[in-house]
Amino acid sequence: MMLRARNIYKSYGSLEVLKNVTIECHTGKIYGLIGANGTGKTTLFRILLGLIKQDSGRIEIDSHGIKPIGGIVEKPALYGYLSAYENLKVFAQIQGLKLTKELFHQSMQQVGLSTARTDAVNNYSLGMKQRLGLAVALLNNPACIVLDEPFSGLDPMGIFALHELIKELSGKKQITVIISSHIISELTDLCDTLYILNKGEIIKSGAAAQLLEESVTTYKIVGKNLERSEVMKKVNAVILDKSALVSSKNIGISEVLKELIEEGMEVSSCIPQTDLKALFGPE
Fold first, then answer.
1. Helix (H, G, I), strand (E, B) or coil at 38
2. For a surface tag, which of 8, 55, 64, 218 has the fewest beta carbons within 10 Å of its beta carbon?
3. pLDDT at 275 over 80
4. Final residue before a domain boundary, out of 186, 212, 238
């Protein structure tokens, strides 16, 4: 066990933000913390990073490094008027680390950024700022990193690139990664395990694929001429523009797709649609 948070409680006055939260994370695995905005994700990350203190409960991190855990909370805290090198130098000094040229190159290459740019970070795209913030978080080689809504504001290509980087850090570097998001699709194919947070409590946890599969209520089938399909009529599909919605209740989606192909329909994709109420629980 690399990290364990046990029975964490946190309140601000009469407002209970976290209630008996327990998570367990292993080395080299990716964990997702999913919940709507305001459910306590950022508060839990601040506690893990030691930025605030829990009211009760314990944090256990199995690492003897200089910096057991690093991370980005809310957004990268960068100095926009400084260059990437100057930013890393400042944060390295704060962490008691001397930024040599070699370390700078290693840090930038690790997150896929060029070492050639000397202009202000204000000129960087949001995706590049996220990567530079990650480089800061990785200084002093933490065994675990937490990333709070790291995909917020990124375009699809930016999300894909950050996905690949996180997978590499987890797989090749064996760094434990904990990511929060309120958008399920961002974590579906990325995380090994999901924790579902609702009103400050962990209401579900388990293998990501299994939790998401249990919450699928409909499938969106994309293809040509679906409105002409007898199969679509048989399963009472809702026909949309170049797609159809099929309820998962009492049907096997693989059998539906097989029958569509046998019928001669051109199907380009079948996308499971997750029911947020089924995943997050009642309001």
1. coil
2. 64
3. no
4. 212
CA-closest candidate to residue 187, choices 39, 27, 34? 34
For residue 226, what is the DSSP state? Answer: G
Residue 256 identity (one-letter amino acid)? V
What is the rounded distance in angstroms from the CA atom of residue 172 to the CA atom of residue 137?
17
Cβ 183 vs Cβ 191: under 8 Å: no
Classify burial at 268, counting beta carbons within 10 Å of its beta carbon; exposed 0-12, middle 13-18, buried 19 or more.
Answer: exposed
Q: How confident is the model at residue 185 (pLDDT cuts 50, 70, 90)?
A: confident
Question: Are residues 205 and 226 both part of a single domain?
Answer: no
Give me the amino acid identity at 132. Answer: L
What would the pLDDT profile of 7-64 be if each residue is shown by its tens digit?
999 999 999 999 999 999 999 999 999 988 888 999 999 999 999 999 999 999 988 8
In order of 66, 97, 229, 231, the CA distances from 90 in angstroms are: 17, 10, 63, 63
Query: For residues 7 and 63, what is the distance between their CA atoms, to the nearest angstrom?
Result: 21
What CATH code is carried by the domain that includes residue 160?
Answer: 3.40.50.300
pLDDT digits (tens, 9 = 90+) for 117-143: 999 999 999 999 999 999 999 999 999
The model's pTM: 0.83
Same domain, 13 and 90: yes
Count of CB atoms situated within 10 Å of the CB of 233: 11
Measured between alpha carbons, how far is 214 from 176 in angstroms, rounded to an integer?
A: 26
Taking residues 172-200, report their average pLDDT: 89
Q: How far apart are CA 32 and CA 59, in angstroms?
A: 18
Whether 255 has a pLDDT exceeding 80, the answer reads yes
Name the nearest CA neighbour of 236 among 255, 223, 249.
249
- Number of domains present in the structure of the chain: 2
Give the Cα separation of 165 and 172 in Å (integer). 10
